[in-house]
Amino acid sequence: MLPQNVSAIPHDVEEFVLHWQGIGKTGLMPTLREFLDARPFKLQSEVAIVDIVSPTEMRFRLFGTGLSSLSGHDLTGSDVLSNFHPNARAAAAYNAWAAVTMPCGYYVRRDHQRSPFKTHAVAVGLPLLHEQSGRVCLVVFNATVDRAVDMGREEANPTVRAISLIKWIDIGAGTPETVKVARAQ
Known about the structure:
Elements: H1 11-21, H2 32-37, E1 47-54, E2 57-63, H3 65-71, H4 86-101, E3 105-114, E4 117-129, E5 136-148, E6 160-169, H5 176-184
Antiparallel strand pairs: 1-2, 1-5, 3-4, 3-6, 4-5
């Protein structure tokens, strides 16, 4: 879990949300092309784009070089969920699937471990419309909030050991929370 003092959304994560909001949109979200053609975010190396085919099939379309340093190698083209510990996989899949089917965004906390490093991060996931396939994919920005070294020699993969939802982001179509409230009434 994240240290107790990590409760706020890091400034870089909020700046990424503002960057995404500033891109021209087709409907509720930018298209993949609009995102790629926009001025690059200042920390573009910490960005990943994920193609989401189903609740259990997700692949990295793009995996930034900063993220590659964190994970130990470039994950472009690989299965996203295989990088999550089995105890964190269901939450990661739920968040991503909800974000593309609603559509909405989310903030999450992640615990990464790649021996001997243990890192805590806050990430934001926001939808993009793939204009050719008509499917919604995700752009994810990850901000490392601290790093401790020599945490032991656990296995290197999967790197994401734990994930917890901080909050959903309503981009105009609601969130899973608003749907639950509406169903309860």
